[in-house]
Amino acid sequence: MAQAAAVAKPPAPPRRRRASATPRRLPYLLIGPAALLMLGFIAYPVISVFYYSLQNYNPTKPWRNGFAGLDNFTKIFTDDPQFWDTLVFSAQWVFVEVGLQLLFGLALALIVNQTFVGRGIGRALVFSPWAVSGVLTSAIWVLLYNSQTGITRYLADMGIGSYGTSWLSDTSTVFSAAVVADLWRGVPFFAILILADLQSVSKDLYEAAEVDGASRFKQFWHITLPHLKDAIILSTLLRAVWEFNNVDLLYTLTGGGPAGETTTLPLYIAHTSVDAHNFGYASALTTVAFVILLFCSIVYLRLSKFGGENK
To answer: Is residue 132 packed enough to be buried (19+ CB in 10 Å), middle (13-18) or exposed (0-12)?
Structure first.
């Protein structure tokens, strides 16, 4: 009996081998070298800026180099009126540029989202300035604003203005001229992002609104804008940071002039470090600019309720 029971007993199932941990770790191992390189390229400059912000570091005056503590920051807030002037102009520049780029970008996105003959070519023309680099954009507008061969000469030929007028050297026109030049390149950024979000709006919503008798404006206000909320918040935040850090266009167009009228805080930092070789003080200015951007970004995201539900 015992022998028969032993024969009838089914064999034990084979032991399962433990799943190797290597396949699960393989993706991390593959991206590890690139992640370390990116971390090094990002972390080292940031740490260096924080370090030199506490130092007196000027290669042309090595006898003055050494630990400065918070002296650089004290000088920024108590003994540097140019810092406040450039900070105020930076805020003005960001507010005007981002506001106008958003308005024109939204308008262009709404236009090219419609169905019309040649829409593909129209979209390509609208988006093409965004593919142009900042330095090349500056070079184009420097030629357009040239007093001998640019816009002002053709206007003078038509009896508008006088010959030899340079909008970039006149304190009353330089800001507007720089704004127009940057608008040409910045508007497509908003148009691209907003158009991409517009194409995800269900047409059923508009059809239902038309059945209910809603006007085009009410459809835009109650359907389009709420749907575009997160895209607008994100694009304005990104563009505000980029405009605040804008150096190439203003440096090429005006160099911060005339008489410092177009000197932003990053441009002031560039002059302090590259021209004056005062890298310690420039690092302190950079640290302050970083804190200002970080604080404003957090406040903006909280006030705008980014990612929240639209009511």
So the answer is: middle
Given a contact cutoff of 8 angstroms between Cβ atoms, the answer to whether 275 and 191 are in contact is: no
Nearest-angstrom CA–CA distance, 179 and 184: 9
Quick check: helix, strand or coil at residue 11? coil
Residue 166 burial (CB count, 10 A): 16
Cis omega before residue 11 (within 30°)?
A: no
71 burial level (CB within 10 Å; 0-12, 13-18, 19+): middle
**CA 108/CA 100 separation, integer angstroms:** 12
pTM (two decimals): 0.83
- SS3 for 214? coil
Enter the DSSP assignment of 222. Answer: I
Of the candidates 83, 246, 262, the one whose C-alpha atom is nearest the C-alpha of residue 168 is 262
3-state class (DSSP) for residue 117:
coil
C-beta separation of 302 from 81 below 8 A: no
Identify the CA nearest to 227 among candidates 109, 101, 62. 109
Per-residue pLDDT of the chain (311 residues; tens, 9 = 90+): 445 545 555 565 555 555 555 678 888 888 888 888 888 888 888 899 999 999 998 888 888 888 988 999 999 999 999 999 999 999 999 999 999 999 999 999 988 888 788 878 888 888 888 888 878 888 888 888 887 877 888 877 787 777 777 788 888 888 999 999 999 989 999 998 998 888 888 888 888 888 888 888 888 888 888 888 888 998 999 999 999 998 888 888 888 888 888 899 999 999 999 888 999 999 999 999 999 999 999 999 888 877 666 55
Which residue, chain included where needed, has tokens 């804190």?
A: 291
